[in-house]
């Protein structure tokens, strides 16, 4: 099997029981150490519910990531521009960022939008985002190269999270990130594999030595990136630099007017 990222040889690595019933082979690249499953034929079953029962950290993750996103935008990008949360799930991050004054829209073709209805990318004319976020998305990608090519049609800057392999010999017993119970984590990255992925698209790659990564055309000092994405320093940086006013009241009026329009159209069609 060829590595989906660097095209080197990927050898059989281990087998894991996925979804409690499928014995699935995992392959590891000899060059970039990217771990990929065999053809993931079980995904329709794995995504019967897009957000799994094991994702108990969804709220905590969004609380953690909001100040990180704000700090990165405030430091290196135009905070008055438009942004996209790719694979945005229930729309929680979009709502939280809009509540803090950032013009975010959600993209997700698999999950119901619960918290940011009317703020999907399909609700507005097409636009190029100043920055795109993709938190806990990359490990779900069947083909990271193909999917990143799609992502880059929305923006040439991608701020994302995924946990990299902590050791050379990871396994479901030593590393929780396999989560074979859900069947959704089918691409597991090393630091080298993410660098190889960025290189394929001539993007600069920053990493905060934890789980936050940035692919961008911009060249950014990595020491400063690590400082800005540290929760403590990012919090203080936002206190100094963030002057944005919430979009909550504006969004409420917008949604209210859209509802009134839909009611009016509904009444007219019934006459």
Strand order of the largest sheet: 5-4-6-7-10-9
Portion in strands: 15-25%
Categorize the overall geometry: globular
Integer count of domains: 1
Give the CATH H-level superfamily.
Vaccinia Virus protein VP39
What is the mean pLDDT? 93
User: Helicity range of the residues?
Assistant: 25-40%
The CATH class, by name, is Alpha Beta
**Which structural class should the secondary elements be placed in?**
alpha/beta
The main β sheet shows up as: 6 strands, mixed
What are the segments in which pLDDT stays under 50 over at least 5 consecutive residues? none
Counted by DSSP, the helix tally is: 8
What string gives the helices and strands in order?
A: EEEHHEHEEHEEHEEHHH
Question: Radius of gyration, rounded?
Answer: 20 Å
Organism: Spirosoma endophyticum
Protein name: Methyltransferase domain-containing protein
GO molecular function, one term: methyltransferase activity
Pfam family, one: Methyltransf_23
Condensed summary:
The protein has 271 residues and is α/β, with parallel strands linked by helices.
Description of the molecule:
The chain is α/β, with parallel strands linked by helices and 271 residues long. The chain has one domain (43-257): Vaccinia Virus protein VP39 (Rossmann fold, 3-Layer(aba) Sandwich), CATH 3.40.50. The chain is built from 8 helices and 10 strands. It has helices at residues 43-46, 58-76, 92-99, 144-151, 191-200, 222-228, 231-241, 248-269; strands at 10-18, 22-29, 35-37, 82-86, 103-107, 131-135, 157-161, 187-188, 204-207, 212-216. The chain has a 6-stranded mixed β-sheet with strand order 5-4-6-7-10-9, sandwiched between helices. It has a 4-stranded antiparallel β-sheet with strand order 1-2-3-8, with no helix packed on it. Helix 2 (58-76) crosses helix 7 (231-241). It starts with 9 loop residues before the first strand and ends with a helix. The model has no long low-confidence stretch (mean pLDDT 93).
């Amino acid at each position: 099997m060829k590595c989906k990222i660097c095209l080197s040889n990927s050898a059989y690595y281990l087998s894991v029981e996925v979804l409690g019933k499928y014995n699935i082979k995992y392959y590891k690249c000899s060059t970039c150490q990217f771990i990929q499953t065999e053809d993931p034929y079980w995904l329709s079953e794995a995504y019967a519910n897009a957000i799994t029962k094991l994702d108990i950290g969804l709220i905590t993750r969004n609380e953690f990531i909001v100040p990180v996103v704000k700090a990165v935008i405030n430091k290196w990008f135009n905070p008055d521009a438009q942004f996209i949360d790719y694979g945005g799930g229930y729309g929680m991050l979009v709502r939280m960022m809009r509540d803090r004054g950032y013009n975010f829209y959600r993209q997700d073709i698999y999950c119901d939008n619960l918290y940011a209805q009317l703020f999907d990318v399909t609700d507005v004319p097409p636009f190029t985002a100043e920055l795109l976020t993709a938190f806990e998305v990359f490990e779900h990608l069947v083909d990271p190269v193909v999917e990143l090519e799609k992502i880059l049609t929305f923006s040439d800057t991608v701020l994302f999270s995924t946990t990299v392999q902590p050791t050379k010999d990871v396994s479901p017993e030593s590393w929780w990130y396999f989560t074979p119970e859900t069947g959704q984590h089918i691409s597991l990255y090393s630091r080298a594999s993410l660098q190889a992925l960025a290189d394929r698209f001539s993007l600069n790659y920053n990493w905060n030595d934890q789980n936050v990564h940035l692919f961008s055309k911009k060249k950014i000092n990595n020491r400063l990136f690590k400082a800005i994405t540290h929760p403590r320093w990012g919090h203080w940086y936002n206190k100094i630099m963030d002057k944005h006013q919430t979009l909550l009241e504006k969004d409420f009026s917008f949604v209210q007017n859209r509802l009134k329009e839909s009611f009016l159209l509904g009444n007219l069609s019934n006459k």
